[in-house]
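Usage

Read records sequentially. Each one opens with the input sequence:
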Amino acid sequence: MAAAARDHAQQPGKKAGLGTRIAFGFGAGAYGIKDGGFSYFLLLFYSQVIGVDARLVGLALTIALIVDAVSDPIVGYWSDNLRSRWGRRHPFLYFSAIPTAATYFLIWNPPVGWSQSALFWYLLGMAALIRTFITFYETPSTSLAPELARSYDERSALFGWRLFFAWTIGSIMTVSNFALIFPAFATPEIPNGQFNRDAYALYGMIASALIFVAIMVSALGTHSQIKHMRLPPAKRTLGLKTIFKEIFETIANRDFTALFLAAIFGAIATGISASLSFYFSAYFWGFSSEQIGLITMSVFASAIIGGAMSPFVTRTIGKQRGAVIIGILAGLVLPLPIIARLFGLLPPNGDPAIFWIVFMVTMIDVGLVICFQALTASMMADLVEQAEVRTGRRSEGIFFATSTFIRKSVQGLGVMAASFVLTLAEFPTGANPSQVPSTSLWQLGATYVPAIWLVWATMIFAVSRYRLSRSGHEANLAMLAERGN
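and closes with the structure output:
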C-alpha cells in the first residue's frame, strides 16, 4: 500500500518543476504585503496618525471579517467546481489582480477632514472589499498546492517556499517603510516620519503595484500546469443548501477541527503580537525608525530558517509532533525580553545591548513561527485526500478557504484583541514616544505577556489533537490509486 501511495504521489506530469514552484511561492508575496500592512501599520496609522479611536479601528476590522466570512467557503467551493478552459483556479487569479491592488491603495488614502464616525465606515468598507478580493486570489492560489506536490514530504517543502516569499516580500515593504519612506517624510513638525500620513500614501502606491505584480507572476508562472490538474466534477445544478451541506460533509472530521482551532488561536496570537510590535519597538524600547527597520530585516534570515526547517522537521519527527514542539518554543521565546524588562533585568533604553537582544530574539522567534505555519499548512493539504477518500470529492478550495479565513482573523480578532490590550494599559492616543508615561509602558508589557501566552497555549493544545500521520496519508493515497483517482 505504501508503494502504491508513492507511485500515485509521483505520477508523470504531476510534479511541477522548480520554476513553477517558485512562481507558486512568489504569489504569496501579495498576501504577505497585505498581511504586513494590516498587521503592523493599520492600527498605528488609523489610531495614532489619523486619530481614530483604537477601539473603533479594531471594531471596524472585526465587523469586516464577519461580513466577509461567507465569501471564503463560497469561493473555495466555487473554485473546486468551476469549469473553464483555464481550469478550476486560474480564472480567479487573473480576475483578482486589479481589484485587490486598487482597494489596498485606497485603504491607505482615507479622505481628509472626515469625522471619526465617517472614517470608521470608510475603513470598514475598504477592509471588507480588500478581504473579499484577496479571497478570490489567495484561496484558489493556495489550493493549487496539493496537486503541485502530492507526497507527505514534498508538501512541507512547497509550503516552505510559499511562506518564504510571503514573509520576505512582505518584509521588504516593511523594511522599505522604516529605512526609506518614513525617514524621507520626517519634517521639523513631524520628526518621526512614521507619524506622517503622506508616508503611508506613498507606501500604499508602491505596495499595491507590487501586489498586482505578485499575483500576475504567480498566475502566469503556474499557467502551464493547468493541463496536469484535476478536472472539476460533472456540471450540476446546486442550491445554497446543497453547497453548504457538501462543505460541512468535507470538513466534518476530528483532524480538521483540531487544525482549524489551532490555526485560529495561532492567528489571534500572531495578530496581537504583530499589531503591537511597533508599539513595543517605538514606545516600550524607544527604537528609532532605522533600528526598527534593521530588526524587521532580520525576518529575511527568519524566512530562510523557517523555510529550511519545515521539510527537515517533517522528515525527522513528523508534522504534528514537529508543530507542537516548534510551537512551544516559539511561544516561550517571543516575550522573554519584555519579561526581563518588567523585572528590571535589562539596562535602560538607549543601551546598544537592548537593540541586539531584541534583534536576535525576533529573528529566532519569527523563524520558528514560519516553520510552524509551513507545517500546519502542509497538514491541511494532507486532509484533502482524507476527505476525498470519505466523500469522493476533490475539495482543496474548501480546505484552503479556511486558511484564508484564519489569516484574515489575524487582522480582525488579533487587532481587536490588541486594541483591548492598549485600552487596559491606558495607552494614550496620538502621543509621541516621549509623552507616554512609564506606568503605561509597564502596564502594556504586563498585559501583553499573559494575553499572548494564554492564546498561544490554547493553540498548542488544539494542534496536539491532530492525528493524521505519514502512514495515514500514504494509506489515503494508496486507496485513491486503487480507485483510479
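Summary fields computed downstream for this record:
- The chain is about 75% helix and 0% strand.
- Residues 336 and 361 are 8 Å apart (CA to CA).
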